Automatic annotation (TrEMBL), chain A:
Entries under HAMAP family matching the protein: Clp1
Region (Disordered): 1-35, 371-394
SUPFAM superfamilies hit by this protein: P-loop containing nucleoside triphosphate hydrolases
Protein name listed in UniProt: Polynucleotide 5'-hydroxyl-kinase GRC3
Pfam families: Clp1, CLP1_N, CLP1_P
Source species taxonomy: Eukaryota, Fungi, Dikarya, Ascomycota, Pezizomycotina
PANTHER family referenced in this protein's UniProt entry, alphabetically: CLEAVAGE/POLYADENYLATION FACTOR IA SUBUNIT CLP1P, POLYRIBONUCLEOTIDE 5'-HYDROXYL-KINASE CLP1
Subunit structure as annotated in this protein's UniProt entry: Component of a pre-mRNA cleavage factor complex. Interacts directly with PCF11.
Automatic annotation (TrEMBL), chain B:
Organism: Baudoinia panamericana (strain UAMH 10762)
SMART domains: RPR
GO MF annotation: an example: mRNA binding
Compositional bias (Low complexity): 199-209, 314-336, 453-465
Domain CID: 12-150
Protein's name in the database: CID domain-containing protein
Any Pfam family the entry gives: CID
Any GO BP: termination of RNA polymerase II transcription
UniProt xrefs under SUPFAM superfamilies: ENTH/VHS domain (SSF48464)
Length: 475, 702
């Protein structure tokens, strides 16, 4: 095993004989299986837990899960997912295992809206050098992420290479939570997720290369200015990338956002910031009449050349709330998968480093100074990287000595030197995450779990309080 | 010697490659010592493996046919005795390297190449490594192409009533290299020297008892496939044939650079290849293209003459017997021919003399060649693979030749059917096509009667009907036409347009792409390109599964670090599951820039772990997809001991500009986008190019 000294109960070592089992391993016992006949334009809704295995197999007909077509006679593991297998043409499914909830549904008008939206985007791509730039907004649990997945998957199926920008720090995309990710999708999407970020060795699915920024707070409103700075930076790199790649440029951008972004009291400040930085030309408001009306009033009343189209889509009947317990499990799974893989079995590496050699910044919790209207520029000159635990309430980061409190936390490795200015640290993309396995205060050593055997050099390390510590990753 | 020598041009950066190239050029026969010497150079300079591989490939492509086999033996010796990374670099283009040579050489050399190919499917004899010399996915396409070509050739042969067979029965330039050695050193010839009992040795005894004696007629028909006998056209073979024709013309051109006809012909063929490569030619039309190519091959100048130094008398006069039509050579005469005591430079086939001999006055426009020279000097990438092939030759040309080429290229800048036809017709290609059964005219026929020109008009018409209408000439790595978008009506962006169900949108995702992968459900178009893509995709599944089944493959697997901004901006996005070799190479080239992390040490046999001499951490080997071998990544030798390349780099170079540097780089890439001091700064004044405007962006919703 790759981790001498670590005891890893049931983690990381997965038998290759059961590749269909994703995430937490489940006993491979005989599961009840049954057939479900689905009429055209109906769907099989399910909420599958993390522990019990739950899978479907397409027996006949055609079916897709959020835009990704299911291959016939392949067993697709869906445990830990909430979603709906949809069929345009009708199909027969074999369902194996138990879900917390499952039923077939005929009310699928949402699917028509989604695929029509896809058709609109395709029309906008045809013959254009620069494709549509879509911002998806709406309250939580209205199907935003599922729709973004569908739009991306359909586009790829038609030979496009859409770029998805994911701005919800509560759930990662090709990265653990607290990541804000951008990725250009050129290969077919996976039924059970966004795929795999680059790894060594063979993988069942083509890997994708994300660009990852770090926002270690649960919601943008905790640090609006930092969030906006990262949006600016992300737009800069993304638009630069599209200039390098004509197909990606033609395919356009789809941006997913957290529900917490839609704050009428701030006059939709952050939405406006994203629209402006990414030059958005289509806003899709999901499941909120008020949000749609506000945005429509604001953006379609402008002069023709400044006008931005705003569409209103209904919340799908199958969209369900994902409660805190579920989200917590999801985050833990994402963190685990980052280090240990899921279908692919990865070997993380242990790095034991003297505390004196470490420079760690703590991203301060928002509660201390969230109310301050501005942060950054005017204070940058005052920031002294050598001073530890500066009490200036305007700063986002403070240098901290490694302590037991870090145990189980994720530490982001920034693509910048450890003595960079605060704004540089804030805006830098990240090279990866470390997991704090053990802090030995007496012997002044910290043991990290890293995805990669290579050390990270003198790069700034940032400890955020989000996501919460994952105590059970290694013991 | 030859004007084609790409001296100093291919390698550019590497003296090693230039030296290698020099030695390679001197290799004119199966010389064990020289092959061994070249192999040693390759072994010693694996860091130049890519440059050396390119030089070797290019040499095989451009050298005279009688020198191709010795060069292929060099390739064989290197991949077997040195292995990676040469297997990777040479494997990428092995198909074209092999097939293009195959189309140009004589039957005996072909059999030697067949034997060679066979050994590549097997492990190196006596090696601990049980993997084949080249992975199956590289060798199989070559085998398939050969099988198809041979089958077609045989079928064709059966149908021929009065075949105007090539009059020369044997390849005299082989004058006994292996069969009847002119020198006493047969025992130490290359195949024996490599592994003692190597199967690479192509002695005639191998085939003589087993197969019917190969008649000379079996050789030329490789290009002379009868369309009627073949319901399906194999595009890769067709492409290879077109490429082969192109190389022949290029060589002929080098020999007689002032031949305007050749230049125009060459140009026309390059365009034809582009059209075929683009996949835009419907199946039925491919049949027609195939027929034309076959016919062209029959009359195209044979390069085997051109690279030769001037000879005192026309070669055929030395062997008057060969001028006689010889419909069938009995086996006896075949074996006799192997002992033909020829000069060694004697061409065994004659080009259509009229083509080589007619000359045009050189076009001299003093400034005309500046552009082309600038292009070559700047190392700018030529726009097509064909041009890339041609560039090394161009770089060695005197000004007058460059001038000619340039004039012809600029004379026909657009690529459409009309141009192609005009070029074909102007070059004499069309007018020289035989009017009937062109497929029966073997490539090396020197006794072909003057071509019948009466059919030019009908050929023009038929070409016009089969080729796609004027379209973008530069094939891109990405599908120019997205899948399943044939007849799409634009959908306005409005809330009301969201409500109506449009079956055609579903059809575009399903019915329009009927060709489905049963493993992952991915769909492909029912076009030739779709089929090719699916084939590459299935190969990818196969490779991946094979690798996953390998218990060693998962040891030491780990996630990679994320890319930094500059890398992410510049990394070429492509789908590895359908990628062509070009995509992969482009990506690998970009990856090369990543520096320390990408340095590696090949894992010594049996060693899976090393300790970094700098950080004392363990180093583990991993499997390199690119190198197809176990390596220690991020590893170098530091003071003779293994160490992480990054550890050494960190030690040598303290952390400098850091992320600020990458930001600066990102910003400097565009210049126009300035990041201002505050996070509020808006890039937002940028306008999208109004692409939605025409599609309803301005429509009021409702
Ligand atoms: Zn597949
Ligand atoms: Zn090291």
């Amino acid at each position: 095993m790759a981790l001498p000294g670590f005891n890893l109960p049931g983690l990381g070592i997965r038998s290759t004989s059961t590749p269909q089992v994703t995430g937490t391993s489940a006993p491979d016992v005989e599961q009840p299986s049954r057939r479900e006949e689905l009429a055209p334009q109906s769907e099989w809704r399910f909420e599958a837990g993390f522990i019990q295995s739950y899978s479907v197999r397409l027996v006949s007909g055609h079916a897709e899960l959020f835009g990704v077509e299911l291959a016939q006679n392949q067993t697709h593991n869906l445990s830990g997912l909430k979603g709906a297998v949809f069929t345009w043409q009708g199909c027969e499914l074999e369902v194996i295992g138990e879900a917390e909830s499952e039923y077939s549904a005929q009310e699928t008008e949402y699917a028509t809206e989604w695929i029509n939206l896809h058709g609109m985007l395709e029309s906008a791509r045809d013959g254009a050098s620069e494709g549509p730039r879509v911002l998806v907004v709406g309250p939580d649990s209205t199907g935003k992420s599922s729709m973004v997945r569908s739009l991306a998957a359909w586009a790829v199926r038609q030979g496009r290479a859409p770029t998805v920008v994911h701005l919800d720090p509560r759930e990662g995309l090709l990265a653990p939570p607290s990541s804000l990710t951008a990725v250009t999708i050129v290969s077919q999407m996976e039924v059970d997720g966004w795929g795999i970020s680059p790894m060594t060795g063979p993988s069942l699915q083509p890997v994708r290369s994300p660009l990852v920024y770090h926002f270690p707070y649960a919601t943008p409103s905790e640090r609006p200015n930092a969030f906006k700075a990262i949006v600016t930076r992300s737009a800069l790199t993304t638009l630069n990338k599209l200039e390098e790649d004509p197909l990606a440029k033609q395919s356009g951008i789809i941006i997913d956002t957290p529900g917490g972004l839609n704050d009428p009291k701030s006059n939709y400040d952050m939405i406006h910031h994203i629209i402006s930085e990414f030059s958005i030309n289509l806003v899709v408001a999901l499941g909120s009449e008020r949000l749609y009306n506000d945005l429509n009033r604001r953006y379609t009343s402008k002069s023709p050349e400044d006008a931005i189209a705003v569409l209103k889509l209904a919340k799908p009947g199958g969209a369900v709330e994902r409660d805190n317990a579920y989200m917590k499990q999801l985050r833990a799974r994402q963190v685990r998968q980052y280090f240990f893989g899921s279908k692919e079995s990865l070997n993380p590496h242990s790095h034991s480093i003297p505390t004196n050699d470490l420079t760690i910044y703590r991203a301060k919790p928002a509660s201390s100074d969230a109310a301050l209207p501005s942060f950054g520029a005017e204070d940058e000159d005052d920031y002294d990287p050598a001073a530890t635990s500066t009490s200036s309430s305007n700063t986002m980061y403070e240098k901290v000595a490694p302590s037991l409190a870090m145990t189980g936390a994720l530490i982001a490795i920034k693509f910048c030197s450890s003595n960079s200015e605060e704004a540089t640290i804030r805006d830098s993309a990240i090279m990866g995450y470390l997991y704090v396995a053990d802090v030995d205060e007496a012997r002044k050593k910290v043991r990290f779990l890293a995805p990669h055997p290579q050390r990270w050099g003198d790069r700034a390390l940032v400890w955020g309080t989000w996501p919460e510590a994952a105590a059970d990753l290694v013991r | 010697m030859s004007a084609l020598s790409p001296r100093g041009s291919i390698s550019g950066t590497s003296d090693v490659a230039v030296d290698f190239e020099d030695s390679l050029r001197d290799l004119s026969r199966n010389d064990r010592y020289e092959i061994g010497n070249l192999t040693s150079i390759a072994r010693e300079y694996t860091e130049y493996a890519q440059a050396i591989s390119r030089v070797l490939e290019n040499h095989i492509k451009t050298t005279a046919p009688n020198k191709k086999l010795p060069a292929l033996y060099v390739l064989d010796s290197i991949v077997k005795n040195v292995g990676t990374p040469y297997t990777v670099y040479l494997g990428r283009n092995l198909y074209s390297t092999f097939m293009e040579a195959y189309t140009l050489v004589d039957g005996m050399t072909r059999r030697a190449m067949d034997s060679l190919l066979k050994t590549w499917k097997e492990p190196v004899p006596g090696s601990m490594d049980h993997r084949p010399v080249f992975p199956p996915e590289i060798v199989r396409p070559i085998e398939n192409a050969l099988i198809k070509a041979k089958t077609a050739a045989l079928q064709n042969q059966r149908q021929v009533q009065q075949p105007p067979y090539r009059s020369t029965p044997t390849p005299p330039q082989y004058n006994g290299q292996y069969a009847v050695p002119p020198t006493p050193n047969q025992h130490e010839q290359y195949p024996q020297y490599v592994y003692g009992n190597s199967q690479a040795a192509p002695p005639q005894q191998q085939w003589q008892p087993a197969m019917p004696p190969p008649t000379p007629q079996q050789q030329p028909p490789f290009l002379s496939l009868n369309p009627a006998a073949r319901p399906m056209i194999d595009v890769s073979t067709l492409r290879a044939d077109i490429s082969a024709l192109i190389s022949r013309l290029q060589m002929a051109f080098a020999a007689s650079p002032s031949d305007q006809g050749l230049i125009t012909q060459l140009h026309a063929l390059l365009k034809l290849k582009q059209v075929v490569d683009s996949g835009a030619v419907p199946d039925a039309a491919l049949q027609e293209v195939r027929t034309k190519v076959t016919a062209l091959a029959a009359v195209a100048p044979d390069p085997r003459r051109s690279p030769q130094p001037p000879v005192p008398t026309p070669q055929w006069q030395a062997t008057p017997a060969m001028q006689q039509p010889a419909p069938y050579q009995p086996p006896a005469s075949v074996s006799q021919a192997y002992q033909y005591p020829g000069s060694g430079t004697l061409p065994f086939a004659q080009p259509a003399a009229s083509m080589l001999n007619h000359t045009a006055p050189p076009l001299l426009a003093p400034n005309a060649l500046n552009g082309l020279q600038a292009l070559l000097a700047n190392g700018q990438k030529p726009s097509t693979p064909q041009m890339r092939t041609a560039v090394p030759a161009l770089q060695n040309m005197p000004h007058t030749q460059l001038n000619n080429v340039q004039n012809n290229i600029t004379a026909a800048p657009t690529s459409n059917t009309a141009d192609l036809l005009a070029a074909l017709s102007k070059s004499g290609v069309l007018s020289s096509l035989p009017s009937t059964t062109p497929q029966t005219a073997p490539a090396q026929n020197s006794t072909l009667p003057p071509p019948n020109t009466s059919s030019t008009t009908s050929l023009l018409a038929s070409l016009q009907s089969i080729l796609p209408p004027s379209q973008n000439s530069t094939p891109t790595t990405h599908a120019a036409q997205p899948a399943g978008t044939q007849s799409k009506a634009a959908i306005p962006i409005s809330n009301s347009a969201l409500k109506t169900f449009r079956p055609e949108l579903v059809q575009a995702l399903y019915d329009n792409q009927p060709n489905q992968c049963s493993t992952c459900g991915r769909r492909f178009l029912a076009t030739e390109e779709g089929r090719a893509k699916k084939q590459r995709h299935l190969d990818w599944h196969f490779r991946t599964n094979q690798r996953l089944a390998d218990p060693n493959a998962s040891r030491g697997q780990h996630r990679q670090w994320f890319l930094d901004e500059v890398e992410w901006i510049s990394i070429p996005e492509f789908d590895p599951s359908t990628a062509s070799a070009a995509d992969t190479t482009a990506a690998a080239t970009v990856q090369k820039k990543r520096g320390a992390q990408d340095q590696y040490i090949r894992a010594p046999a049996g060693i899976t772990r090393l300790t970094c001499t700098v950080c004392q951490e363990e180093m583990k080997s991993s499997y390199s997809e690119e190198l197809q071998d176990w390596v220690f990544t991020n590893a170098v030798y530091y003071n003779g001991k293994p160490a992480h390349a990054t550890c050494v780099e960190e030690m040598k170079k303290p952390w400098g500009g850091g992320g600020g540097g990458s930001l600066a780089a990102a910003l400097s890439m565009t210049g126009q986008r300035q990041r201002s001091a505050t996070p509020e700064s808006s890039l937002g004044k940028r306008k999208a190019e109004g692409t939605l405007a025409g599609n309803g962006a301005r429509l009021k919703t409702g």
